[in-house]
Each structure stands twice: as structure tokens, then as C-alpha cells.
Amino acid sequence: MATKKKQVVKKKQVGSTVKVALLGFGTVGSSVAQVLAASKFPGIELTHIFNRDVQRKRSSPGAKAVPASVVWTEDINDILNSKVDVVVELMGGLNPVEGWLRKALASGKSVVTANKQLIAYRGASLFKLAAANNVHLVYGAAVAGGVPVIPGMLQGLGGDQARRLSGILNGTCNYILNRMEGGADYATVLADAQQLGYAEADPSADVDGFDARAKLCILSRIALHAELNPDAVTTQTISTIEAIDFTYAKELNCTIRQVSQAERNGKAIHARVAPMLVPLSSPMAWSHGTQNMVVVSGRFGGDVVFSGHGAGGEPTAVAVVSDLLAVAQNCSSVQLPVRKREVTGEFMAPHYLRFVVDDKPGIVSAIAGALAKVGANIDSLLQTPGHPKHRLPFVVTTEPSLTSTIEKAMKSIAKLDCMLEKPLCLQILVPEDKSE
Ligand SMILES: NC(=O)C1=CN([C@@H]2O[C@H](COP(=O)(O)OP(=O)(O)OC[C@H]3O[C@@H](n4cnc5c(N)ncnc54)[C@H](OP(=O)(O)O)[C@@H]3O)[C@@H](O)[C@H]2O)C=CC1
Ligand SMILES: N[C@@H](CC=O)C(=O)O
User: Fold this and answer.
1) Is the Cβ atom of 141 under 6 angstroms away from ligand 1?
2) What ipTM was assigned to the predicted interfaces of this complex?
3) pLDDT tens-digit map of 51-63
4) Most buried pick, 62, 125, 250, 340, via CB within 10 A?
5) What does the record give as the active site (predicted)?
6) φ, ψ for residue 10 (rounded to 5)?
7) 113 lines ligand 2 (CB under 6 A)
8) Which CATH superfamily is domain 18-138 in?
9) Is 153 left (phi over 0), alpha (psi -120 to 50) or beta?
């Protein structure tokens, strides 16, 4: 009988001191320098920092933590042609980062990155490149900032068969929705989130769900062993949520959170990122500020919850430095085969539908008729007092229906003359029934 030779991937042995280059000296990059300076880990030496307009960065407050020996540069070739062992990429985006990191990996440098877009879209081929060059590519900070959800899933849950992932994967959205819940207005809190360094360079990545979608794809690869095309995952913006939605959500014993969910259904994966009504009794409703939360439901181990700060320089720097320590100590992680999977945004769930109308007789029956036509049942109708008749916000909730069914009804309801703005449709999150 032919025996298969066991392949042992041995990562490149790094020297006694690991030389580190930082690409990007922004919120996370400067915090990494600070954490390294504060902890003085033996065997790790920050040798280079790359950023555009280096003079501006050298005079920023974060630069005070940088040792005088560090070479600051605006020329990426100073890093790629140097003897650094690990490149820590904290710039973000696909271009020009992808090309530079490919060169770094190909030349035998390990890479630590917090770049979720890069890992979601290009992870599969970058992992191959890293393996072919016997170097590490680690990305623990790419999902949930300072929460060790990636190493936790890779190491701690590799032995389970995950069926479902759900959670809050964007700190900026959680911060915004949490403050709106307390009465603040959207534009003000978004500006605060940007100022505090939580938001992406283009904050639409946060509020429109693209950041959380990339993170969901990364987690799906690890936990569901499914390679998803991020562009195929449905997203819904939080920017259409208004103060009135928190009032109605409260009436329904809920609040609103941006929720990311993915679950296995045969060979397909159902996945979406959207603001949803979350019961006040759910742990997701208790996440405040930039807190992220990931619930992994496993076949054997049941639910495991990861929670903590998902955005901000210091928490994220902890994840980056932890990855750096793992690379410096040549620790490899569990690797299981991953398959390409089709993705659909279809979920069976109750829905919250909010309308703003110029009130006149027959509106409720028109809405009920459109819902009945697609086979959706109304569960409740809510109307708080005190709103002007010519601009009346009210809510209909439905019994569980397919996302596409509700969307079909909403298309025809949106065309009614009385509608003053596009109706809002939010899924209502229902805790999984564990009794089956
Ligand atoms: N902030 C957070 O809470 C978290 C961020 N992340 C991820 O970490 C990475 C960094 O985020 P963050 O620190 O917030 O981002 P910042 O925008 O604060 O920092 C990025 C840095 O990279 C520099 N940079 C960007 N593009 C280039 C380029 N083409 N050439 C040279 N320098 C460049 C920027 O320079 P300049 O100042 O001139 O723009 C800036 O100094 C991103 O991938 C992000 O998604 C992950 C988890 C949490
Ligand atoms: N902008 C992101 C930062 C961390 O990934 C977020 O708000 O979660």
C-alpha cells in the first residue's frame, strides 16, 4: 500500500532578534509603536517605519514612542530591500498594499496585517504565497480589533463544526447606533467616530456594511470553511436609521445593532450584514461603544461568545503585537481545507417595516394588501402619539417570512402615493431555538 508522505511546513527560522517594519503610521500603526515601546518585548526590534509625508508623521505625538534608531522612509523599496524579518501592514486597502506584500512574502518576509479587505478578497492566494515561501501571514487584528476571535477560532474551535456565526463586527456602527439610542444624532456621532480613530479612511465602509462584510467573509473561511465572494454578501446601510426607529424598537423590547450573520445550509451559505432589531435580552443589545461580539454556534461545543473592543488604536495594537509575538516565536496556526461556496442573503425572520406617510384613509389596508399578496402575515402595528398627520411615522412588524418575500412587498409599498420617504425594512433577530 502506498503511504502518503506527511508534509511538514516548517516556517523560516528567524534570528534571535526579529526586525520589524511598520507600513502605515496612523491610528493603529502609532499605537503599535507605543505598545512595543511600553512593553519592550525581548527579541523584537522596530527598525523601519514607512509612510507618505514622513516629516508630518515624525512630528506627530505618536512618534515620541519611536526609538531614535528607527529608519523613517517614504520609499517602500527601503523596506522591501531591507533585512527586516516581519512587515506589519497598517495602511489599509488593496492597492498598493497587495503588490507590496506579495513582494515581501516572496522575498521571505513574514507579514502581520490588520487589513480585512486584503484578507477577505485576496487571502486565499496570499496564504498560498506565504506557504510557498515558508513564511507567516497573520491577521488577528483584521476582525474585531482587540478581540482574539481569529486566534480563538483557529486554535480553540478548530475541533468543532461551526453551523452559524453571528455578531457585531463593526465598532464604528456600534458606537453610532449606541449613541443614537441615547438621543445623539447620526452625523455628529459619525464625526466623533472618525475623530476617535474608529472609522475607516472612507467611513462608508463602516456605515454601509462593507467593513463588516469583509470580516464576516474572513470568519466564514475560518469557522465555516467556506470561501465567499465578499461582493456577493448582501449589505444594508445604517445611515437610514432615524431616532424614531429606536422609539419603536423600544416598544418592541428591542434595540438596533448592525448585525453580521452567516450560516451553513447544505452547500450554500446564507450571509448578510444589516442593521437589525435585537431583543434587549440578547447579549448583542448589551454591547456598548466600540464593543464587538461574535457568537459561534458549533455542532459539538454549542455557543461560544467572543467580546471586547473592536476598534481603536490601542485595542487593535494589542492584536497586532500578539500576532508579531507569535510570528517571532514561529507559532503556526491550525489550517483546515476551505471550499468556494455560493452565498445568498435569504433568511427566514420576522421583519420591522417603518413607513413615513402623509396620512389618509386606506394606507394600512394598502400595506396589508401588498403583504398578503406575497403571503406575509402582519404581526403588529405600532403608532406612537404626537406626530403630525402630514408626516406620520408608523411601524408594521411581520411574522417570519423570507427576506426576498418582504423585499418584493416593500417594492410595491414604496410606490404608494402617500409614502414620503423610502420605507425602512429591518430584520428582527430571533434567538435560535435550542429545543430542537
Ligand atoms: N482604526 C481601527 O480601529 C482599526 C483599524 N484596522 C485596520 O488597520 C489598518 C490601519 O487603520 P488605521 O490605522 O485606522 O488607518 P489610518 O488611516 O489612521 O492609518 C493609515 C496610515 O497609512 C498611511 N498610508 C495610507 N496609504 C498610504 C500610501 N499609499 N502610501 C503611504 N502611506 C499610506 C496613512 O498616511 P496618511 O496619514 O497620509 O493618510 C496613515 O498614516 C486598516 O487596514 C484598518 O482597516 C483594523 C482594526 C481596527
Ligand atoms: N472601522 C473598523 C475598525 C476596526 O476594524 C470598525 O469600526 O470596526
Assistant:
1) yes
2) 0.99
3) 999 999 999 999 9
4) 62
5) 215 (proton donor)
6) -105, 120
7) no
8) NAD(P)-binding Rossmann-like Domain (3.40.50.720)
9) alpha
